[in-house]
Amino acid sequence: AASGYTVVIASIPRRGTGLADATAKAKEALARGIRGAGVLDSGKFASLHPGYYVVFAGVYPTLERAQTAAHSVASKYPNAYARQVTR
């Protein structure tokens, strides 16, 4: 799929220990019961600001589903939000 939607849990600058920090955050999310958590490089996606490792949770076909998912993780990650991801 060239385009979809996800839930952004955190955006961590690529510099320094960025990848390690993002990976740790994704593992923490998985441990806290957030299914489908992982890390993507924002520079590989046209719809995201380059220079970040984005800790995300899940891939959804519609914005509405991603927003529902963001709402469900808000108790653990209050700043989580739905975002379109386009290559």
How would you describe the overall organization of this protein?
By secondary structure, this protein is of the alpha+beta class. It has helices at 18-31, 63-73, and strands spanning 3-13, 37-41, 52-60, 81-86. The protein has a four-stranded antiparallel beta sheet with strand order 2-3-1-4. The longest helix is centred in the first third of the chain and has 14 residues, at 18-31.
- How do the strands of the widest beta sheet line up side by side? 2-3-1-4
Radius of gyration: 12 Å
Output the structural class. alpha+beta
Counting DSSP E segments of at least 2 residues, the number of strands comes to 4
Q: How would you characterize the largest beta sheet? A: 4 strands, antiparallel
As a percent range, the share of strand residues is: 35-45%
Q: Give the rounded overall mean pLDDT.
A: 94
Distance between the termini: 9 Å
- Low-confidence parts lasting 5 or more residues at pLDDT below 50? none
The coarse silhouette is globular
Order of helices and strands: EHEEHE
Helices, by number, come to 2
Amount of helix:
25-40%
